[in-house]
Amino acid sequence: MGARSSRLSKRLPIEKALGVRFGSQELYIWAFTHRSYAYENGGLPTNERLEFLGDAVLGLVVTDIIYRAFPTLPEGQLAKLRAATVNMNVLADVARELGVGAAVQLGRGEELSGGRDKSSILADTLEAILGAVYLDKGLPRAAGLIRRLFEARVMEAAGRGAALDYKTSLQELAASSLGGMPSYAIEEEGPDHAKRFTATVSVAGVAYGSGKGRSKKEAEQNAAQEAFEALAASRMVAGTAEGGQTDVVEAGPAAAGGTDGAGQAGATASGPVAAGTGAVQVNGQRTGRAKRRRGRAAAEQQAGASAPAGPDALDSDESSSG
User: Fold this and answer.
1) Residue 127 bears catalytic tag
2) Which of 157, 187, 195, 133 is nearest to 70 (CA)?
3) How confident is residue 89, by pLDDT bands cut at 50, 70 and 90?
4) Among residues 50, 162, 242, 266, which is most buried (max CB within 10 A)?
5) All domains of the chain, ordered by start, with CATH?
């Protein structure tokens, strides 16, 4: 009874943040039940089926946003832009803003290992929430919520050239401009249940960036981001229209006026895509649920040692519920 009361006490804040009040308490509870909590409480249903459904709904709506906003982008660049928006890091950031971590039900092991702020758990729970909203309210309401949460992020990613996979971006940049491949040195500190990692990335023996994280992967991504941004500061990096390779040219009037595939994409009415200092198109970037699953498994192995309706439609249900 105490656990049930605790769940209900956390229900209103997250629903207020979402702008949705669930009509089904069962769906609400299901959406926030992580498998670690389910297994420790007699094999309750987990949120993984809802996560599977929410992943599909999210992908559909984000794809629709991108398709309509950038009518001149070819299929390859549309896919890269979607991958830059629908990935674990972005989903986890959205979940943190909503306060998802405070509402998710975790087992004791995950609780002790900082599970409420793990990017993999937050991203998966957000997808489960979206799946629950879809079942409870229908596609128009779910789509309106997704547009409110992700549309600005799509445009922001487009302005940066959809380069959120900094390890891949740095690898391409280093190979083309430095003649070598990045290597990462990892240091770790802290107890097993609260490890912190520091990564230093080097090319040809020269260190270009460092980063910290709760997992080796997160630390390496942060190090790669620092190195990429430092190297790109005096260059313009833009993806070509054919072959997906990365071109690196010195910044200047000629570079700024380039007419490659990325430059053409930048001519859309919605603003530049893959143009300007630091913009990049990532070759072969593959994100999504399967990749997050692999990343989550690696993170948990380390931690375990211890056009749809608009946003206006979101207000109607909340106001009617009081």
Assistant:
1) yes
2) 157
3) confident
4) 162
5) 2-160+288-321 (1.10.1520.10), 166-265 (3.30.160.20)
